[in-house]
Structures are given as C-alpha cells and as structure tokens.
Amino acid sequence: MPDRTPETNVIDYRAAEQLLAARDPRGAVKLLDPVITAHPENTAARLLRARAFFMAAQLRAAELEFQVVLEREPANAFAHFALARTLERALRPTEAQRHFRLAAALDANPEYLRAARFEDGAGSS
C-alpha cells in the first residue's frame, strides 16, 4: 500500500461519510480503518467509525469505539446518546439509560430529552 498522505486521509474520511449516508457501513469502516491507524487520536474519524459499526450491527465494536470517544470528550452529548442506543440495542437498558440521561443533561436536544425519560422516573429505584 502506498504511503498515505494527509489528503488521502481526508478523501477517505469524506468518502466514508458518503458511504454511511448511502447505508454502506462496512464500506465506511474499510475506508476509516487506515485513517485511524494513521491518526488514532482523530476523534471525528473514531466517531464516524463507531456510527458505521452501529449501523452494521457490530454492537461490541461500536460500544468500544464510542467509549474511546467519550474518554477523550466526556461532554460529547451525541457520543453518550449513540452509546446509549448501542447499549439499548444490545439489551442492556440500565446502562443505556445512564448515557441517555448524560446526553440530555449535556444537550437539551428534544430527542435526547425524550430518550432520557426524566419525567417517568425510569431507571430510578
């Protein structure tokens, strides 16, 4: 494989965004893997790959990638919300609820607030 340039990484990242939009998450992951290998600190690429894993129903890989993003950006409301959706889909509702509530506390996005279900006391003992 030829040396990757910064331009190659940007092109692959943008192409991965398009593949994800076209509902080809596996193609997106293939493009993002070398980008992340070259730049493991790139949170945007990791978040996009996490979304692709989720869309491809690779829930454990999505969970791990969202966790990496949250280690670096603990106030990333979208990452909390997406991790919650991942945990919900993996049939782990108690863990999911915690991240839904964190997302809603960080961002008053109506979708986050609905998912957090503060008003019904869900998740409290």
From TrEMBL:
Cross-referenced InterPro entries: TPR-like_helical_dom_sf
Domain of life, source organism: Bacteria
SUPFAM superfamilies per record: TPR-like
Name this polypeptide is given: Tetratricopeptide repeat protein
Species assigned in the record: Streptantibioticus parmotrematis
